Known about the structure:
Layout: H1 3-6, H2 12-15, H3 18-30, H4 35-48, H5 59-90, H6 95-119, H7 126-171, H8 176-187
Amino acid sequence: MSDKNTRGRASKVDLLPPDIKTRLAMMLRDKMFSQAEILEEINDLIRDCGLPDDMRLSKTGLNRYASRMEKMGARIRQSREIAEVWTKQFGEMPQSDIGKTLMELVKQIAFDTSMYLGDQQNGVSAKDLSLLSAAVQRLEQAESLSFKREQAIRQETIKRAAEAVEQAGKQANLSINDVSEMIKAVYGLNS
């Protein structure tokens, strides 16, 4: 049977009742069971549940599913390792730098995803393009909000510094001109 005829069709494993799928996943993760033992137990559970014989798993079907789960597990493990490295790095970074770094990582993921989707034989589906566009738009909005927040914090800090300079100048009995010059320096208005 060609790949075109099976694309999009649920596998036998996907059609299993949740309790049997859970048992299958647990046995695959356990590594204590051979695939032959797993196949026998799962097919016994299928029969015991009264499901039709055509729902029973084949060796190749189980192997395909196990391979798919192993690949997914490998990706999850790799993601955790990368996250651990970045988490250690983030611990040494100021909060605003963490946000900027995360934005760059998400941009890279969006770019990689768009390249991957563009390389697909049938091109990018309208749904995938719409989802990617929405993600990029939300990313840009978040970046803009972050920039505005950072600007507001800077302005508030400058304002408080100017107020502190003014108060200190008055307490030190400095002339109004000297205090004014110091406030201008805080605002960056001195030439």
